[in-house]
Please model this.
Amino acid sequence: MRSNSSLLRTAIAGALLVTLAGTAGCSWFRKSNELYAPAPENRPLEVPPDLDLPRTGATAGAPAGSVTASGTVAAASATAAPAAAPVVGDPATPEAAGTAPAPAPVPPSAGTATATPAAAAGFNMAGSRDDAFARVDTALAGIEGVSVASRAQLLGVFDVNYQDVNFLVRVSEVEAGAYVSAVDPRGMPASGEAPAQLIAQLQAALGAN
Model:
């Protein structure tokens, strides 16, 4: 009987301890903050302190959305101003400043070549070269202004000066007889007015063709 009473008391004491522990636990875990009083869907959103500060980094002015290399290049191309073309009348252009580029020199065409003095034409004489040489010598002596510096019958030439021009009067042997002409010291046909005039006077004096 005594044993049953002890067990009963122990059971009652354990029940009391359990009741006290449950009551104390509820009060311990109860939140006193008013934010937790409403329902979860009605509680205000808590923002962490770091996210509440204004952005000051390099990405503060970046547009929303993903940034790609092609998008960046397209934006730069759209904002780049095209180079201005030169406008006639602009002070920077040569036409407006009165300094138009000079025309390129035009090379002379084949039809506008510089004229050169014509070579003195000769004439033919009948007979041998020696006979023609003697007749030419006599004719030269009769023409005013002619000075004969030397004669070479073997070569058939006269070294003359006419109108202050030195040249040679040559008598050459040809198939039809002799040919009288004016040449320079190189044996080339002499050019200029003086040789041409002297040959014309010799032809008139000798009656040659």
User: Anything to note?
Assistant: The chain has a mean pLDDT of 72. The beta strands are 123-125, 146-152, 157-162, 165-174, 177-183. The CA atoms of residues 77 and 83 lie 13 Å apart. The longest helix spans residues 2-29.
